[in-house]
Specification:
15% strand; Trna Endonuclease, Chain: A, domain 1; alpha/beta; four-stranded mixed beta sheet; 14 strands; 3 domains
């Protein structure tokens, strides 16, 4: 067994042992459906893949699991945030071999099975029979499709062995989905690559024409133009490691109108000459760059610690387009013919030499220059005054507040991430549960951030909101109801909002009166009354749905849309 196989197997077995109870609850496994040890090891492998690929907590990864029979080969499913009328759906299928010799290919029949299923999954008019967890997620996707949102599908085929064979690849290539569906192989080597911090990238770039080099505020800047063929060479050599500092992590193909326009501008022989003017350019950062100052043009720049913080999608579109052209011409590499075709095709380059102490500036530059693709704003807000105050206030209650994604272990009970806190406050105290379904990825941006983290917010309110949301999610996940309501998978934020109101009524106070002085009383009431609160909240939602729709049976797609649009709020 090689070292990567051994490391991943060690982590998978530890996860299986630690989370066996959670896995049973998530997959609705009881004594009548016993599973052997390898089942939990295999499921833990899928869990690790979900967490690592999506860069989410184990708690969130658990919610993505759909394995457990009648799952059409889909072991995990994640629905991304809505962005520019599009959303990314990531499907996971895991094949974990007990012998762990790393020589088995990903099974051909498994690939064929999941691809055959995809065509039906995303057609709202086709009826499907899946296990409950999967069906609820699929109907949510279909509801979004009916509302006009366009899905891009990433299929993560995960094993502790080799990729699929050439025949299977031919089957993938011949599917009719085009760029809307992308298959990616994830194994022990890829997981270790994703888990390890990247090595510094040191390289040189050939610039074309004149450039501007300036030094101010103790920093250096180079502005010039670079040939798209040079960008293609750079990405062929280093790949996605160039994007590790980019807030928007890239893995697989993300379909977007921006990428399509870039590709069309490059393919069109007339437009490619003006590509420089069509594009916003590429922003790179480094710890040091050197050039021959005695020249006045066509600089060759040596760069240390190179990273791209804006224009990553542009770079990938350039590389993919030139690769496709090379394939059409049956060329092994960037040939002289391609070089000549794109010799006058340039893109603007901004290169910033920044000190390692300029971390906040890097965040600000990334935010300011990323206009083509939405970014995760959470890290950019991590150093706001309100966030720093919350860290101190929450620490007094013996909790840890995670401002950045990598601050603390995200799965400990006394750790609270700023993402979870923002969602809980927005749903419960700001009474906007429906907007989280549509705007979850934007809650750290304007105008939501200032509404959530306003000056009146205190540590006690934040912690209580998070505890309510956690309890609701746990109750919904582990419910022992004989016939749980069909709206349950879509209602967590609404249930949490109702419970927050009940708690304040029980305390006989308004929200602004909830603080450190009555925190212990509030938490005690919540701990002892959560079962009753939860039952009452479910009944309130049932009554509201009857008022909205009458006694008719409501389809899952319609339920998902109802909670996303907030139709129920006026009845609550």
């Amino acid at each position: 067994m090689n070292i990567n196989l051994n490391l991943i197997d060690q982590r998978v077995r530890k996860l299986a042992e630690q989370y066996e109870t959670d896995l049973k609850q998530q997959l609705k496994i009881n004594k009548t459906l016993e599973k052997d040890k390898h089942f939990f090891i295999s499921t833990a492998f899928v869990l690790l893949c979900i967490q690592t690929v999506l860069e989410i907590s184990l708690e969130s990864a658990l919610d993505c699991l759909t394995e457990g029979g009648n799952d059409a080969g889909i072991d995990g499913l994640h629905i991304g945030d809505l962005q520019n009328n599009e959303f990314v759906v990531t499907l996971f299928q895991g094949k974990y071999k007990a012998n762990r010799d790393g020589t088995a290919n990903f099974p051909e029949n498994a690939v064929i099975k999941i691809l055959n299923t995809i065509g039906a999954l995303f057609d709202p008019d086709k009826s499907l029979t899946f296990n409950l967890q999967l069906r609820q997620k699929i109907e949510e996707i279909r509801s979004l499709i009916r509302d006009g949102y366009i899905p891009t599908v990433r299929v993560m085929l995960c094993n502790n062995g080799l990729p699929w064979n050439e025949i299977t690849q031919q089957y993938i290539d011949n599917t009719i989905f085009g760029d809307q569906v992308n298959c990616t192989h994830i194994n022990h080597d890829k997981l270790i690559e994703l888990l390890q911090k990247p090595k510094p990238i040191n390289d040189s770039l050939q610039l074309i024409g004149k450039g501007i080099v300036e030094e101010f505020n103790y920093r250096r800047v180079f502005v010039g133009k670079i040939a798209v063929t040079e960008i293609k060479k750079l990405f062929t050599k280093h790949g996605n490691k160039l994007l590790e500092r980019n807030i928007r992590h890239y893995l697989g193909l993300h379909k977007s109108w921006v990428n399509q326009n870039i590709q069309q501008s490059l393919i069109d022989e007339e437009k490619r000459q003006n590509f420089y003017f069509y594009n916003n350019g590429i922003t790179m950062i480094c710890s040091k760059f050197r050039h021959n100052a005695l020249q006045n043009q066509n600089y060759s720049i040596a760069i240390n610690d190179l990273q791209i913080i804006n224009g990553g999608q542009t770079c990938l579109a350039i590389k993919n387009t030139l690769d496709d052209l090379s394939c059409e011409l049956s060329l092994d590499d960037l040939s002289r013919e391609i070089e000549l075709s794109f010799q006058n095709t340039y893109v603007l380059l901004r290169l910033y030499e920044l000190d390692e102490t300029d971390e906040n500036l890097v965040h600000d530059i990334t935010y300011a220059t990323n206009s083509q693709n939405p970014v995760d704003l959470r890290d950019l807000k991590a150093n706001d005054a309100i966030q720093r105050k919350l860290v101190l206030g929450i620490k007094d209650f013996e909790y840890e507040y995670e401002r950045k994604r990598d601050d603390v272990e995200p799965d400990a009970p006394y750790d609270i991430s700023s993402q979870t806190a923002a969602e809980a406050i927005f749903a419960i105290w700001r009474c906007k549960p429906h907007q989280l379904k549509v705007n979850r990825g934007d809650i750290f941006g304007h105008p939501f951030y200032v509404e959530i983290f306003n000056d009146e917010l205190n540590a006690a309110q934040l912690i209580i909101a998070v505890l309510i949301l956690r309890m609701v999610k746990m109750k919904s996940k582990t419910t022992n109801m004989v016939n749980p309501p069909s709206f349950l998978p879509y209602a967590d934020y609404f249930l949490a909002m109702l419970i927050g109101k009940m708690l304040l009524e029980k305390l006989d106070i308004s929200l602004e009166k909830l603080d450190h002085q009555n925190f212990a009383q509030a938490k005690n009431i919540l701990d002892h009354s959560i079962h009753n609160f939860y039952s009452q909240a479910i009944n309130k939602l049932k009554e509201a749905l009857i008022k909205l729709y009458g006694d008719q049976t409501i389809a899952l797609q319609q339920l998902s849309a109802t909670f996303r649009r907030g139709d129920l709020l006026e009845f609550l």
